[in-house]
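Support reply, case 0932

Customer input (verbatim):
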Amino acid sequence: MPHEPVGDVSLYFELHDFCEPWRAARSPIVFLHGLGGSHAMWLYQVPAFCDRFPVITVDLRGHGQSSGRDADFGMADMARDVARLLRNLGVGRAHIVGLSLGGMVAQQVALDSPVAVASLVLADTLAGAPAGAEVLMRDALRFIEEGDMAEIAKARITNAFSDRVDAAMRDYFIDQVARNDKSAYVRAARAAFGFNTRERLGEISAPTLVVVGEDDRVTPPVCSEELAAGIRGARLVRIPGGGHITNVEFPREFNGALKDFLLPL
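Our regenerated output:
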């Protein structure tokens, strides 16, 4: 699959399109992964949707097979990359689905490039650090800045899944995150920990679905409640028992919520 130059980086992406060509074309779905993830974390979503929508999975800059590890970057840079990728691919409008960090990037795309967004799905993410969480956020970022990738991956992925997750699944994702370039991971983490769209949520006009695991310890349901309350007309779906990576741990429930939201659009 190709790399696409977008400004100062090259993004790796995959396009999966098994839609019936004699039917009217739908806007594609673009899936954006979480911190330390890659396009591969959408393994349960690609086959579930690629026969009804063209599906694009992307490695954000500094992640996976994309470039961008050697210079500082922020949320606006990652959002601009996605908008440029769509433009380069000739995509006028897309359904943007983002998990965690990807959900922050998705919000930024909706704010900076609203005409490119047909709809928005914000999963296990936030508009900014909850009030009173400043010390916890500083400690978490310090742990990322000072630790090695093996211990960072083990701590953060263990916390991200629910206590009932299949151990093999958890260990697989620990290994995947541990493979990240440390400097790029830190840059992305700083962008995420400094992110705040709280005062701009009312500017988002795209139809929006907010999804959260009821047992999410990383971005607790109160963060999703704030998103849904702040974005006009947004719908909130809670996944019982879900942790922070609901698309992988609870794919049937996650995909069902997306289908209920996207198919009527």
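We compared this against your earlier run and they match. Two observations from our side: The mean pLDDT is 96. Residues 34 and 142 are 19 Å apart (CA to CA). Please reopen the case if you see a mismatch on your end.
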